[in-house]
Amino acid sequence: MARTVIDLDEGMLTLAQQQLGTKTKRETINRALAVAAGTSADDRSRGLAWLQDNAECFIDFDALAEQERPHR
């Protein structure tokens, strides 16, 4: 392993630790790198396709359209 000195956003590190369930900075950063490296273009493509197929379950398109209409 390489030793690297970097400046970290402590707030983001805390959030990452909570999301990843890690305790140390080293564990958090290594886990985050593993997650990022494991997310391939194919994974993102499948996720986007799923979201497009299921968007109506999460998004109220009628409410969005109403917000976009000019109010007079």
Through-space gap between termini:
63 Å
Number of helices: 4
Taking pLDDT < 50 over at least 5 consecutive residues as the criterion, the unreliable ranges are none
Strand content: under 5%
Number of domains: 1
Gyration radius, to the nearest Å? 19 Å
Helical amount among residues, as a percent range? 55-70%
Q: Per the principal axes of the C-alpha atoms, what is the gross shape?
A: elongated
Question: Which structural class is indicated by helix and strand composition?
Answer: mainly alpha
Entry keywords:
single chain; mainly alpha; elongated; 72 residues
Describe, in plain words, how this protein is organized in 3D.
- The structure is a single chain.
- This protein is mainly α.
- It has one domain (10-68).
- The protein is 65% helix and 0% strand.
- It has helices spanning 10-20, 25-38, 41-54, 61-68.
- Helix 1 (10-20) packs across helix 2 (25-38).
- The longest helix is centred in the middle third of the chain and has 14 residues, at 25-38.
- The termini are far apart.
Write the layout of secondary structure elements.
Elements: H1 10-20, H2 25-38, H3 41-54, H4 61-68
Helix pairs in contact: 1-2
In short:
Helix content is 65%, strand content 0%. It is an all-alpha fold. It has one domain.
